[in-house]
Amino acid sequence: MLLEAQEVSKSFRGRRGSADVVAVDAASMSVAPGRFVAVVGESGSGKSTLARMLLGLIPVTGGTVLLDGEDIASMRGERLAHFRRSVQAVLQDPAGSLNPRKRVRQAIAEVVRLHRIASGPAAVREKVVEALELVGLSPGEQFLDRFPGELSGGQRQRVLIARAIVVGPRIIVADEAVSALDASVKAGVLRTMRDLTERLGVGYVFITHDLPVVKKVADEVIVMKSGRIVESGPKTAIFSEPRQEYTRTLLAAAPVLEPAR
Ligand SMILES: Nc1ncnc2c1ncn2[C@@H]1O[C@H](COP(=O)(O)OP(=O)(O)OP(=O)(O)O)[C@@H](O)[C@H]1O
Ligand SMILES: [Mg+2]
């Protein structure tokens, strides 16, 4: 399976006669299961817009997003349902991804039912518990009846990952998914995400402004600037021999990695 963007562009209509904003300009990239692809770049460089196009949340204004060679814009019915299961989003928690009035059990169970992963209360509950334990919320039963407000930031982020993982995705698009967490909690959530690449073969498009995180977990790095992909390649190459001045500046601005404890 391969999720690809081929020369995708997105422009937003300018307000009251001002020029259109070209948020993403002919960007091409791909991600396969088991690969950890990090997307970095300064604020406003188009990272989130690219992510939303990869997820099919907003239409492209140019180019194509393809899953296994098939244009996602032309998918309907079972093909579209397959795409929606295969490619899941994990967004930043403070953006309100979890309804504060829904218990963990309900938040995850509704996607299980929506995607017809299981039916019947016992089978659904089993799926929910299994997903919670996969993301390190163990024993899962202890978390079922909690509201988001009764969880720590790291636990909430894990619930969001569990909700994505429960439908059996091959690729997860994560936009600033750990940015709000403090260092040690972040490291734990990242380990869990990385672990899912190895255990379940999940691939990631991982958007972050956090270069130490990239250095730790990525296989490949994509650098964006003003809507364009200005550099991409294996992490080791990007970090050891950045070709673009912009990448060098970005890397120089990153704090030094904490030594592993
Ligand atoms: N719905 C929209 N309408 C108009 N302009 C938009 C819209 N969404 C994004 N933009 C613009 O597109 C550009 C890229 O935004 P985007 O959110 O993709 O950046 P980003 O790289 O994710 O930034 P950050 O690191 O701050 O999250 C910005 O100039 C932004 O103002
Ligand atoms: Mg963003």
TrEMBL record:
Family matches, as InterPro entries: AAA+_ATPase, ABC_transp_ATP-bind, ABC_transporter-like_ATP-bd, ABC_transporter-like_CS, P-loop_NTPase
SMART domains: AAA
Top-level taxon: Bacteria
ATP-binding among keywords: yes
Keywords of the record: ATP-binding, Nucleotide-binding, Transport
Database matches in Pfam families: ABC_tran
Keyword Flavoprotein: no
Domain ABC transporter: 3-251
UniProt similarity note: Belongs to the ABC transporter superfamily.
Protein name per Swiss-Prot or TrEMBL: ABC transporter domain-containing protein
Lineage of the species this protein comes from: Bacteria, Bacillati, Actinomycetota, Actinomycetes, Micrococcales
